[in-house]
Design brief:
With 201 residues, the chain is mainly β. It has a single domain, classed as Ganglioside M2 Activator Protein, Chain: A (Distorted Sandwich), CATH 2.70.220. Helices cover 6% and strands 48% of the residues. The chain has three helices and twelve strands. Strands 1, 2, 3, 7, 8, 10, 11 and 12 form an eight-stranded mixed beta sheet that branches. Strands 4, 5, 6 and 9 form a four-stranded antiparallel beta sheet that branches. The N terminus is likely disordered. It binds 2-acetamido-2-deoxy-beta-D-glucopyranose (2 copies). InterPro entries: Uncharacterised_DM11_DROME. This is GL27150.
Length: 201
Protein backbone atom coordinates (compact mmCIF):
# COMPACT_ATOMS: atom_id res chain seq x y z
CA UNK A 1 0.00 0.00 0.00
CA UNK A 2 3.04 2.26 -0.15
CA UNK A 3 2.92 3.42 3.45
CA UNK A 4 6.14 4.99 4.58
CA UNK A 5 5.66 5.28 8.31
CA UNK A 6 6.79 2.65 10.80
CA UNK A 7 3.76 0.85 12.20
CA UNK A 8 4.15 2.28 15.70
CA UNK A 9 3.66 5.80 14.39
CA UNK A 10 0.72 5.15 12.12
CA UNK A 11 -2.49 6.74 13.15
CA UNK A 12 -5.35 5.27 11.24
CA UNK A 13 -8.80 6.69 11.16
CA UNK A 14 -11.49 4.76 9.38
CA UNK A 15 -13.77 6.91 7.28
CA UNK A 16 -16.94 5.51 5.82
CA UNK A 17 -18.72 7.45 3.12
CA UNK A 18 -22.26 6.38 2.50
CA UNK A 19 -23.74 7.67 -0.69
CA UNK A 20 -27.14 6.57 -1.99
CA UNK A 21 -26.68 2.82 -2.00
CA UNK A 22 -22.93 2.52 -2.16
CA UNK A 23 -20.71 2.52 0.86
CA UNK A 24 -17.09 3.46 0.31
CA UNK A 25 -14.58 2.96 3.06
CA UNK A 26 -11.31 4.77 3.37
CA UNK A 27 -8.52 4.62 5.83
CA UNK A 28 -6.89 7.88 6.73
CA UNK A 29 -3.31 7.29 7.80
CA UNK A 30 -1.84 10.25 9.61
CA UNK A 31 1.72 11.19 8.79
CA UNK A 32 2.26 12.86 12.15
CA UNK A 33 2.82 10.78 15.27
CA UNK A 34 1.15 13.52 17.34
CA UNK A 35 -1.88 13.36 14.97
CA UNK A 36 -2.68 17.05 15.17
CA UNK A 37 -0.43 19.96 14.38
CA UNK A 38 -0.82 23.73 14.26
CA UNK A 39 -2.10 25.06 10.94
CA UNK A 40 0.60 25.76 8.38
CA UNK A 41 -1.05 29.00 7.33
CA UNK A 42 -2.65 29.99 10.60
CA UNK A 43 -4.08 33.47 11.00
CA UNK A 44 -2.19 36.03 13.10
CA UNK A 45 -2.57 35.28 16.80
CA UNK A 46 -4.03 31.82 16.21
CA UNK A 47 -3.17 29.11 18.71
CA UNK A 48 -3.11 25.32 18.43
CA UNK A 49 -5.23 22.51 19.84
CA UNK A 50 -3.27 22.56 23.14
CA UNK A 51 -4.67 26.06 23.81
CA UNK A 52 -8.23 24.77 23.39
CA UNK A 53 -8.09 21.73 25.67
CA UNK A 54 -6.00 20.44 28.53
CA UNK A 55 -5.31 16.86 27.44
CA UNK A 56 -3.47 15.64 30.54
CA UNK A 57 -6.34 13.21 31.25
CA UNK A 58 -6.45 11.90 27.70
CA UNK A 59 -4.69 8.88 26.24
CA UNK A 60 -4.56 7.79 22.63
CA UNK A 61 -3.98 4.14 21.94
CA UNK A 62 -2.91 3.39 18.38
CA UNK A 63 -3.99 0.04 17.06
CA UNK A 64 -4.61 -1.62 13.71
CA UNK A 65 -8.30 -0.76 14.01
CA UNK A 66 -7.80 2.95 14.49
CA UNK A 67 -7.11 5.30 17.33
CA UNK A 68 -8.64 4.41 20.65
CA UNK A 69 -9.35 7.52 22.69
CA UNK A 70 -9.70 7.28 26.43
CA UNK A 71 -10.23 9.89 29.12
CA UNK A 72 -11.29 13.52 29.39
CA UNK A 73 -10.46 16.93 28.00
CA UNK A 74 -10.92 20.22 29.85
CA UNK A 75 -11.43 23.46 28.00
CA UNK A 76 -8.79 26.11 28.65
CA UNK A 77 -9.48 28.50 25.77
CA UNK A 78 -9.17 32.04 27.10
CA UNK A 79 -12.42 33.50 25.74
CA UNK A 80 -15.67 34.61 27.37
CA UNK A 81 -18.78 32.48 28.00
CA UNK A 82 -20.83 35.16 26.18
CA UNK A 83 -18.72 34.93 23.01
CA UNK A 84 -20.14 33.55 19.80
CA UNK A 85 -18.04 30.64 18.53
CA UNK A 86 -17.63 30.04 14.82
CA UNK A 87 -16.28 26.68 13.71
CA UNK A 88 -14.90 25.74 10.28
CA UNK A 89 -14.06 22.27 9.07
CA UNK A 90 -12.49 21.54 5.74
CA UNK A 91 -10.76 18.80 3.86
CA UNK A 92 -8.00 19.77 1.45
CA UNK A 93 -6.27 17.69 -1.17
CA UNK A 94 -2.57 17.90 -2.05
CA UNK A 95 -2.14 18.26 -5.76
CA UNK A 96 0.97 19.26 -7.71
CA UNK A 97 2.68 20.94 -4.82
CA UNK A 98 -0.18 22.80 -3.19
CA UNK A 99 -3.27 22.31 -1.07
CA UNK A 100 -6.54 22.45 -2.99
CA UNK A 101 -10.02 22.79 -1.50
CA UNK A 102 -12.55 19.96 -1.80
CA UNK A 103 -16.32 20.18 -1.44
CA UNK A 104 -15.97 19.16 2.20
CA UNK A 105 -15.97 22.64 3.64
CA UNK A 106 -18.32 23.57 6.47
CA UNK A 107 -18.55 26.92 8.26
CA UNK A 108 -20.81 27.00 11.31
CA UNK A 109 -21.49 30.52 12.59
CA UNK A 110 -23.08 29.34 15.84
CA UNK A 111 -21.02 26.29 16.67
CA UNK A 112 -22.34 26.19 20.26
CA UNK A 113 -25.90 25.64 19.02
CA UNK A 114 -24.91 22.49 17.15
CA UNK A 115 -21.92 21.10 19.04
CA UNK A 116 -24.08 18.16 20.19
CA UNK A 117 -26.45 18.05 17.21
CA UNK A 118 -26.80 14.46 16.03
CA UNK A 119 -26.77 15.44 12.36
CA UNK A 120 -23.30 17.00 12.49
CA UNK A 121 -20.27 15.06 11.46
CA UNK A 122 -18.28 16.03 14.55
CA UNK A 123 -21.11 14.55 16.64
CA UNK A 124 -20.75 11.21 14.90
CA UNK A 125 -17.02 11.38 15.19
CA UNK A 126 -16.57 12.88 18.64
CA UNK A 127 -19.26 14.63 20.71
CA UNK A 128 -21.58 11.63 20.85
CA UNK A 129 -18.95 10.01 23.07
CA UNK A 130 -19.14 12.80 25.65
CA UNK A 131 -21.06 11.07 28.43
CA UNK A 132 -21.64 14.14 30.58
CA UNK A 133 -23.04 16.14 27.64
CA UNK A 134 -26.21 16.96 29.61
CA UNK A 135 -24.13 18.86 32.14
CA UNK A 136 -21.72 20.59 29.77
CA UNK A 137 -23.95 21.29 26.77
CA UNK A 138 -24.55 24.91 27.73
CA UNK A 139 -20.85 25.53 28.31
CA UNK A 140 -19.70 24.67 24.78
CA UNK A 141 -15.99 25.50 24.29
CA UNK A 142 -16.10 29.01 25.71
CA UNK A 143 -16.25 28.32 29.45
CA UNK A 144 -12.72 27.57 30.67
CA UNK A 145 -12.63 24.64 33.09
CA UNK A 146 -15.42 22.67 31.42
CA UNK A 147 -14.51 19.00 31.54
CA UNK A 148 -15.82 16.72 28.80
CA UNK A 149 -15.88 13.18 30.13
CA UNK A 150 -15.66 10.70 27.29
CA UNK A 151 -16.39 7.03 27.02
CA UNK A 152 -13.55 5.05 25.45
CA UNK A 153 -14.05 5.08 21.71
CA UNK A 154 -12.41 4.20 18.44
CA UNK A 155 -12.20 6.99 15.89
CA UNK A 156 -14.41 6.06 13.02
CA UNK A 157 -16.18 8.67 10.97
CA UNK A 158 -19.26 7.94 8.92
CA UNK A 159 -20.23 10.58 6.40
CA UNK A 160 -23.75 10.35 5.07
CA UNK A 161 -23.29 12.13 1.79
CA UNK A 162 -21.86 11.68 -1.60
CA UNK A 163 -18.21 12.63 -1.63
CA UNK A 164 -16.08 12.17 -4.73
CA UNK A 165 -12.96 11.60 -2.72
CA UNK A 166 -9.64 10.61 -4.20
CA UNK A 167 -6.94 8.51 -2.70
CA UNK A 168 -3.77 10.37 -1.81
CA UNK A 169 -2.58 13.11 0.48
CA UNK A 170 -5.22 15.08 2.34
CA UNK A 171 -5.53 17.45 5.23
CA UNK A 172 -8.34 18.00 7.71
CA UNK A 173 -8.33 21.53 8.96
CA UNK A 174 -10.31 22.86 11.92
CA UNK A 175 -10.61 26.47 12.94
CA UNK A 176 -12.51 27.98 15.89
CA UNK A 177 -13.00 31.72 16.28
CA UNK A 178 -14.54 33.65 19.17
CA UNK A 179 -16.46 36.90 18.64
CA UNK A 180 -17.17 39.28 21.52
CA UNK A 181 -20.51 41.00 22.23
CA UNK A 182 -19.72 43.63 19.56
CA UNK A 183 -19.09 40.85 17.06
CA UNK A 184 -15.37 41.65 17.00
CA UNK A 185 -13.23 38.58 16.50
CA UNK A 186 -10.73 37.84 19.24
CA UNK A 187 -7.13 37.33 18.12
CA UNK A 188 -6.63 34.04 19.95
CA UNK A 189 -8.48 31.83 17.51
CA UNK A 190 -7.69 28.12 17.39
CA UNK A 191 -6.47 26.38 14.26
CA UNK A 192 -5.21 22.83 13.92
CA UNK A 193 -4.93 20.19 11.23
CA UNK A 194 -4.23 16.55 10.53
CA UNK A 195 -2.39 15.51 7.41
CA UNK A 196 -2.14 12.05 5.96
CA UNK A 197 -3.09 9.71 3.16
CA UNK A 198 -6.45 8.30 2.19
CA UNK A 199 -6.51 4.65 1.10
CA UNK A 200 -9.61 3.00 -0.27
CA UNK A 201 -10.25 -0.28 1.52
C1 LIG B 1 -5.41 -0.56 22.82
O1 LIG B 1 -6.37 -0.93 21.87
C2 LIG B 1 -6.43 -2.33 21.61
C3 LIG B 1 -7.39 -2.58 20.44
O2 LIG B 1 -8.42 -1.64 20.36
C4 LIG B 1 -6.82 -3.05 22.88
O3 LIG B 1 -6.85 -4.45 22.64
C5 LIG B 1 -5.80 -2.74 23.98
O4 LIG B 1 -6.22 -3.32 25.18
C6 LIG B 1 -5.69 -1.24 24.16
N1 LIG B 1 -4.63 -0.93 25.10
C7 LIG B 1 -4.81 -0.11 26.13
C8 LIG B 1 -3.60 0.16 26.95
O5 LIG B 1 -5.88 0.42 26.38
C1 LIG C 1 -12.32 11.54 33.75
O1 LIG C 1 -13.18 12.28 34.63
C2 LIG C 1 -13.94 11.46 35.48
C3 LIG C 1 -14.91 12.35 36.23
O2 LIG C 1 -14.25 13.46 36.79
C4 LIG C 1 -12.99 10.68 36.39
O3 LIG C 1 -13.74 9.81 37.21
C5 LIG C 1 -12.01 9.85 35.53
O4 LIG C 1 -11.07 9.23 36.36
C6 LIG C 1 -11.30 10.75 34.54
N1 LIG C 1 -10.50 9.94 33.64
C7 LIG C 1 -9.19 10.07 33.52
C8 LIG C 1 -8.52 9.18 32.55
O5 LIG C 1 -8.54 10.89 34.18
Amino acid sequence: MGRQQPVAYQVIILLIFVSYSVEVQYEFVSDNEYVMSDCQDKPKGALGFDSLFDMSELTLNMSDDGVQIQGNVTSIWDVKPTDRIQGSFSVLYFDRGSWQPTILNIVTKEFCDVMYDERQFWYKFWTKHVINSKDVKDKCLNVPGTKLVMETFLTTAVFGFDVPLKEGRHKFKMDFRAFDENNVQRENSICFEMTGEFYKI
